[in-house]
C-alpha cells in the first residue's frame, strides 16, 4: 500500500463511559445500575450514561426528562469535573511513560503516536494492550483502543470492540476496512451529512470511494477532499502533543427564560467570573470576545468584538459583554448566555512531531 507519508503507529485510547464509570468506581453501590451524569430537572441534560443506562436508549446530550422516561429506574448523579480531571491526569501519565506524542482530545480520549516509543516495543497492539491493563490495574477503569496507521482509522477502530476491547487495522487491511465501513461511522460525518450522503446513494465507504473528487467537492465543499482522502486510507494529520487551544469560554443555561436585561447582566457577571478563572488556570488571554445568546425558541446568535490587545480580566470581559448585549435589541426571551475569548496568545506546535516525517518504517502493528 503506497502512502504519501511514512506509515505511523497510532493508538486511539477511549475510556469506556468515563464520567459514569468514575461515579461507579467511587460509589460501589452504583455498580451495575443505570446511571446518568447530569441534571434530572426540566432543563437538565445527560452528560454521560453508564452502559446499563444505554441499554434503554439513554445517551449523552439527551434531556434528563426524556432519559428518565426511557429508563424509569435511572439514577442521576451530579457531575464532578474536578474528579474526572484528576483521574484523566493519572491516565495521561501512563500514556507519557510510552511516548511524548500524546494528543488529548478530551478528558476521556487521546491519540498516541508510538512509532518510536520509550519502551522500544515494535508492536503498537501490544503497547495498547499493556496500557489498557495498566489503566485497569492502577486506576480501576476500562478503556478501549484502536490501532492503525493514522488517526482516522485508529479512532474508528477504537469503537469496534467497546467496552474494554481493542481492534488493530494493519496497513494491508486499511482499504478493505474503510470500504466496508458504514458511512455514519466515519469520524467527521454527522447525522445531517450522513442523511445527505444517503440521498446521493452513499451508504458505505465503498460507495464513497466510487465518487470522484469533483463530485464530493461539489456536494460537500472543502470537506469533499477530506472524504476523498480518508476513504483511501490517507489522513495526514499528525499527533500533536501540545494542541493549540483556540478558545476559552463559559456559559449558563437558565432554569427559567430571561426577558429582562437586568437579570441577563447579573448572569453575565457570574459567567465573566467563571471565564476569568478558566483563563487564569490556562494561563492565556485573548483578543476576540464573543457573546453567545440562545433564545427560548432555540435559535442561536453570536456577537463578537476584536480588541487591539489581549484581555483576561473579568471586569473588562464583563464590560465588553455588556456592550455586545446592548448591540442589538433582544428578539425573544433568553435561555442561555455564554462568553468566550478566542484569538489567544498560545504558542506554536512542538517540533517533536515533525521528526516523524523523516522516519521510514515498514511494519506490522
Automatic annotation (TrEMBL):
Enzyme class name: transferase
Cofactor(s) the protein requires to work: Mg(2+)
One protein family per Pfam: IMS_HHH
Localisation: Cytoplasm
Record-linked InterPro entries: DNA/RNA_pol_sf, DNA_pol_Y-fam_lit_finger_sf, DNA_pol_Y-fam_little_finger, DNA_polymerase-Y, DNApol_IV, PolY_HhH_motif, Rev_trsase/Diguanyl_cyclase, UmuC
Primary localisation category: cytoplasm
Binding residue positions for Mg(2+): 14, 108
Official protein name in the record: DNA polymerase IV
Lineage summary: Bacteria, Pseudomonadati, Bacteroidota, Flavobacteriia, Flavobacteriales
Gene: dinB
